[in-house]
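Check out one such.
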Amino acid sequence: MSAIPTLAAAARLLRARKISSVELTRQCLRRIQAHDPALNAFLLLTEKEALAAARAADKVLAGNGARPTPLTGIPIGLKDIFETAGIRTTAHSKVLEHHVPKHDAETVRRLKQAGAVSLGKLATHEFAIGGPAFDLPWPPARNPWDRQRFTGGSSSGSAAAIASGMVLGAMGSDTGGSIRGPAAYCGVAGIKPTAGLVSRRGVVPLSQSLDTAGPMAWTAEDCALLLDVLAGHDPEDPASVPAPPPHAARAVKEGVPKGLRIGYARRWHEQDINVTRDQHAAMAEAVSLLASLGCRVRDVDPGPLIDYTAVNRVVIVAEAYTIHEHTLTHRPDDHSRAFRLRVLGGGAMRAADYLAAQRQRFVLANRLNALFAEVDVILTAPVPGAARTLEEEKTDLARFLDRPGLASPANVSGGPALSVCTHFTESGLPLGVQLIGAPFQDARLLALASALENAAGTRDRRPALAA
């Protein structure tokens, strides 16, 4: 099989016994061997364990064991903040360079139980915030569409590995856009689920009140298959919510109901932040495509973007500093410069600042979620434009706090949000659009995203990789 299948297509091939999980896993391992030395997506490759899991999956697919799931035999990767029993989990930090957990994260347990085959641990930014960093034991991941360009962060290795076909799906986390940014820059799909829908137990924390774990893959349909396995109440995670199953894959198959109301938050990317001409074109094209799908698009005003960003950043930095105060104080040189620049300021924040941000968070969440009485989905840009170069990002690390973030509103509101690729620049770099939904409307969001992807026709185009 020469072409790279989507996760959904691979699942059909596996169930039809047209390919084995061992064959599919070996195909991914060959791509890793050929391309990862230039992309740095993997921090740790677990080839032996992956092939053993693939052989076990083939037995299930042959009818010798438990009933197969859509993920049985599917090769995936794990952002290296998801703890794995007996396998090193570093959070891409020298601080945890030799950390080997005793237990799997709940999400990892669910993926294993569903028969997924983990190929290893993927690059991130240090503790999901400090990057891209060049002063750590491992280099930052590079963008498969142009190796000199940024992947976005912090689910950087996840996006790079999916775009290059080294894995068919991956786990990411999103505290201020860390799934949606890399998805947009690398031309893949990624969803930040509703807060509490997916367990965070066993995920190295950045900000306990904002962290969200979620899937990334080549298509929205693939993300739906992953989310159906990942979602579910975890009584050992205090933030987990006992919500009904999303049935996201079923929603994708059923399609988008006619007359879906789309609120276009154009002020965020037309007034509050400067986006590129290409990103403007991507948004205009998305509006046209949504109209062609029978959606009704109208403008909405959720308020200034900087309000959401300020709340998001203050909470992240204050909580991250609290988590890492000891090593920042006693082992500062073991952290990257990028991590120190972004987190040390949390030590200067007052309790009054943090509590004011949390109070304002409720105000803004209510403001944004109130719009869902008028519209079903909010449309905006996920990032300002195509990926910049790693060198540009390296010299701009200190702007984390004052640069408005298009992903921040959904982190503040707690609702689901995703990015899918709908456009390419003239030079061939991918561009995404962002869809935001009301809490627990994850399935409807993925159904719309899948229809939008199909209408845009971008999923047949992969980055050209030189061995």
